[in-house]
Structures are given as C-alpha cells and as structure tokens.
Amino acid sequence: MRKSIIYWAATTIASLGSMNAISSEFVTGEIKRIFPSTSGEVRFRLKNDSCISGSQYYFFEMNENDPTGKYASKNWYSMLLASAMANKEVSINIESCPTSGDAKINYIFQDY
User: Fold this and answer.
1) What are the backbone dihedrals phi and psi of residue 62, each rounded to the nearest 5 degrees, phi first?
2) What is the CATH number of the domain that holds 40?
3) 66 part of a folded domain
C-alpha cells in the first residue's frame, strides 16, 4: 500500500511538471553574448535568434541563498561559457517568446 501511495505521488508530481513544459517553448542556438550583471543575473543572447530581438536578453538569477538554485545557476553559467568557446549550440526552455522585456529561462541543456 505504501509503495502504491509513493508511486501515485511521484507520477502526479511528474505529470504536473510536464504540464508546465507543454506551455513552454524551446530555443536553440550558439551563444552571441554573455552579460553577467551586478544585480546577480546572467543575461545572454543567441545568434540568429527568432524569439527575442533588439535589446532583449534571456536571463537567470545567480541566487546564493537558494542551495538548489545556486548550483544550477553556476552549472548553467559554466555551460554557457563552454558552449561559447566551443561554438556549440545550447537549448533553453522559456515560458514563451516575449513581445517586450527579457525572457527568464526555466532551464538550459546541450546535446552532444
């Protein structure tokens, strides 16, 4: 019985997470610019981007107070730097392409 409850909870949580992914968009490209700001955000742009334009950026926060966010953001920043140096594409997940303002990312990944 306990295993059934744990399985139910895990599948429910997983399905809720996938609902969020359904309404989101993926953007892929090589790094054009990385801009770490003094406010604790890392902003970046992709080459030949069809989602943002002008002075818009993708961004994520370097949150030192959140243990999970702290490590994820450091890993993302390292991935951006390595991808830029190797001229490799990264894929990012955002809620939607903004018509104005910047786009906060949900996560970054890279296919090899």
Assistant:
1) -95, 85
2) 2.40.50.70
3) yes
0.85 exceeded by pTM: no
The answer to whether residue 19 sits within a structural domain is no
Q: Are 46 and 62 in contact (CB under 8 A)?
A: no
For residue 13, give Cα distances in angstroms to 22, 23, 26, 54: 15, 17, 22, 38
pLDDT digits (tens), the chain, 112 positions: 554 444 444 444 444 444 444 578 999 999 999 999 888 899 999 999 999 999 999 999 987 777 767 788 999 999 999 999 999 999 999 999 999 999 999 999 998 8
18, 1 in Cβ contact below 8 A? no
**Residue 44 CB contacts under 8 Å (≥ 6 apart), including other chains:** 31, 32, 33, 34, 35, 57, 58, 59, 80
Q: Give the torsion sign (CA, 91, 86, 56, 105).
A: positive
User: The tokens 């604790």 sit on which residue?
Assistant: 40
Place of tokens 């970046």: 44
Contact between 40 and 63 (Cβ < 8 Å): yes
